[in-house]
Amino acid sequence: MPREITRKAVTSILRSTFHGGGEPTLAWNIMKRTVDYFRESAMIRGLTPLVHTATNGVIPQDNLNWIIENLTCANISLDGLPEIQNVQRPTATGGPSFDAVKATMCAMDAKKFSYGVRATVTKQSVTEMGKFTSYLADNFSCLQNRTVAKIDYCQNCFCKYHCAGDCLTRATDGVHLTNILDTARCRINQDLTQDQIIQNLTDVS
Ligand code: SF4
After folding, report:
1. Taking the domains of the chain in order of start, what are their residue ranges?
2. Ligand 1 — pocket residues by CB below 6 A?
3. Mean predicted confidence (pLDDT) in 47-71
4. Can you list the pairs that 94-101 forms with residues at least 24 positions away whose Cβ atoms lie under 8 Å?
5. Any idea what the Cα angle at residue 53 is, between residues 52 and 58, rounded to 5°?
6. Which band of pLDDT confidence, cut at 50, 70 and 90, is reported for residue 171?
7. Which CATH number fits domain 3-144: 2.10.270.10, 3.20.20.70, 3.40.30.10, 3.40.50.720?
8. Of ligand 1's atoms, which has the minimum distance to the CA of residue 168?
């Protein structure tokens, strides 16, 4: 695609992200009103609204249905298999959260709603990440297309196995991963990764 056409496509997008300061879906009425206002404002200006949210994935069914209908993409915090997730991310009452998050992901899969999984990896969980990623790949169809090996844009990037295409999903709608030529976030990530590599090599030598 010629660069000018790509630029035009990119600038016709208006993005809003709910993130930080706790679970965004807990401020449910504010979230709904904000999304409605944002979408209306974008459309008045002829822009395509993209709305992302971070979430812990423990979401009442009615709210989940609304998210699937009205948002573009979600990033779900899931730290590992039950023995990890239930310890690191218990529910507000101290109960296990794994099954509720799994149900949310299954519902999103069923509706082909785009989502990613973000795991906080600790010393205790790092050795379990292989099993966890195999579990995700085997059980959640939406995640199977999101490996960095399937993103053309990332193939020549030296830090692709560090980033795993994450920058790109932030710079697009999370679905059409090839409709963009360049992102500032990629350049920052590449610079930071390069600095880390040089620092590690310096420490070793
Ligand atoms: S930094 Fe950009 S190009 Fe590199 S792997 Fe991440 S998304 Fe892909």
Report:
1. 3-144, 154-205
2. 148, 153-154, 157, 159-160, 163, 165-168, 186, 189-190
3. 94
4. 97/56, 97/57, 97/58, 100/57, 100/58, 100/59, 101/56, 101/57, 101/58, 101/76
5. 145
6. low
7. 3.20.20.70
8. 7
